[in-house]
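ingest -> validate -> predict -> emit
validate: passed (alphabet ok, no gaps, 73 aa)
predict: started
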Amino acid sequence: MWLIPVLLMPKPSNPALVQTHVMFMVLYLIGFFLERKPCTICTIVFIATVFLICYSGVGNCIFWAPFCEADNG
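emit:
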């Protein structure tokens, strides 16, 4: 239940803020897992959900933005 806001948090539209957003998300998840210690099933379901969102090809990953990949290529 506490991990759902992580999936719904919008990415910044400004490319300069993407690294800050990624840092916040990673630190939030580390802090969450250290403090709350969710069950193994909840952790696996969350990781599977993030994996499916990130690799669905839609560009909705919570850790990076599609415009960053377009700039590098």
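The chain has a mean pLDDT of 78.
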